[in-house]
Amino acid sequence: MTQNSSNPVTAYLARLDSAMAGVEPSVRAEIVSGIREELAGLDPADAAARIADLGDPALIAAEARAGTTAPVAEPAPGRTLSIVAVLVLIVGSFAVPVLGALVGLIWVSLSAAWSRREKLVMWLVPVVSVVVILAVVAVLEALNPDATAPTLPLGFAGVSHLALLIPFVVPPIEGIVLLVRAHRRGWRPEALIANRGGVGGPA
Questions:
Q1: Does residue 105 contact residue 86 with C-beta atoms inside 8 Å?
Q2: Are 73 and 50 in contact, with CB atoms under 8 Å apart?
Q3: How high is the pLDDT of residue 4?
Q4: Helix/strand/coil (H, E, C) string of 3-40?
Q5: What is the structure's pLDDT at 36?
Q6: Phi and psi (nearest 5°) for 185?
Q7: Cα separations (Å) of 160 from 133, 136, 145, 166?
């Protein structure tokens, strides 16, 4: 009979070390050394009782592996919906002006891929653009009541027509920006990236 088979402690530690193969080295060394110290100095009866309490080395190794397995990154929330939403915003603005852009904006607002701040900016940009253009038109009309000598080469009539182009131009540009930003961070909102330390892609 070999020394390992005649010494329960030595045999148990050998089985434990073998079962811990594949576990992270630092964790493996910590567990094996900890149990070795725990069993050291015990008389044979106490050592046998403690070994029975510890259980099968394979189970200890399985628990160690489960505790050190790196968490799998969760899939981006509603990625397909988010992609469709931003494509509706881009394409719909050309296919069905105003209505297509509105549907795209609403759909993007329901998506989890963008933060509240991004969604707020998305809604404000077209509104602010229209307000700015109308303000310019109002100023030009005030400066040229008869509209016969526009102060800008384009003329206030031409400037006012720019407001009509906003549904065709601004939403598609917004959609492209949102698409690029979401793709770079794995279709997760900025807040989620910050909370998880950037899991899933750069912000």
A1: no
A2: no
A3: 44
A4: HHHHCHHHHHHHHHHHHCCCCCHHHHHHHHHHHHHHHC
A5: 92
A6: -110, 25
A7: 7, 8, 15, 11
- How far, in Å, CA of 8 to CA of 6, rounded? 6
What is the distance, to the nearest Å, from the Cα of residue 16 to the centroid of all Cα atoms in its chain?
Answer: 39
Measured distance CA(23)–CA(10) in Å, rounded: 20
Question: What is the CA 96 to chain-centroid distance, rounded?
Answer: 32
pLDDT reported for residue 193? 53
Please report the pLDDT score of residue 2 as a whole number: 43
**pTM of the predicted protein model:** 0.52
What integer pLDDT is reported at residue 201 of this predicted model?
Answer: 42
For residue 115, the 8-state DSSP code is -
Calculate the CA 161 to chain-centre distance: 40
Residue 35: is it exposed, middle or buried by C-beta count within 10 angstroms (0-12/13-18/19+)? buried
How far lies 150's CA from each of 81, 142, 145, in Å? 47, 11, 10
CA angle 131, 135, 136 (to 5 degrees): 120
How far is 107 from 127, CA to CA, in rounded Å?
18
Q: Which two tokens stand for residue 131?
A: 């307000």
pLDDT along the chain (203 residues), means of 10: 62 90 87 90 88 90 76 63 91 88 91 91 90 81 62 53 78 92 82 49 40
105-140 b/e with 16+ CB inside 10 Å = b?
bebbeebebbbeebbeebeebbeebbeebeebbeeb
